[in-house]
Specification:
Elements (H helix, E strand, L loop, with lengths): L13 E9 L3 H11 L4 H9 L6 H17 L8 E19 L5 E17 L5
Antiparallel strand pairs: 1-3, 2-3
GO biological process, one term: translation
Pfam families: Ribosomal_L22
Family: Belongs to the universal ribosomal protein uL22 family.
Length: about 130
């Protein structure tokens, strides 16, 4: 018998990779995600390799995972892949406290993010 498999939420020419618990604020991660949105995969990987942002290495790993999913799981052509979506979500926030003057306390929030990258295969226009 077995459990019925869930319907695929993406199109047949798309693949997705997701990374959770990235130790960076969503605002900072979105700057790097916006840098690769809509670009061809090889160009996006080159941009991430030479980016000076600390989190760019993690974004690059997620993009490489999406490319590997497209190639191995969905049999898509790697050379024709484009980053169709790259979006950021909030995750948990660690709350920490610092002592301040006159017995007060300062709240420090250490946010985590999650990143989802969707790559799409596009046919070359002749």
């Amino acid at each position: 018998m077995g459990k019925r498999s869930r319907e695929r939420t993406l199109a047949d020419n798309e693949a997705r990779a997701m990374t959770r618990m990235l130790r960076v604020s969503p605002q900072k991660l979105n700057v790097v995600a916006a840098m690769i949105r809509g670009k061809k995969v090889e160009r996006a990987l080159a941009d991430l390799a030479f980016s000076r942002k600390r989190i760019a290495a993690e974004v690059k790993k997620t993009l490489q995972s999406a490319v590997a999913n497209a190639e191995n799981n969905h049999s898509l052509d790697v050379d024709a892949l484009v980053v169709s979506e790259a979006f950021v979500g909030k995750n948990l926030v660690l709350k920490r406290w610092r002592p301040r003057a006159r017995g007060r306390v300062g709240r420090i929030e250490k946010p985590f993010s999650q990143l989802t990258i969707v790559v799409r295969e596009v046919e070359e226009a002749a």
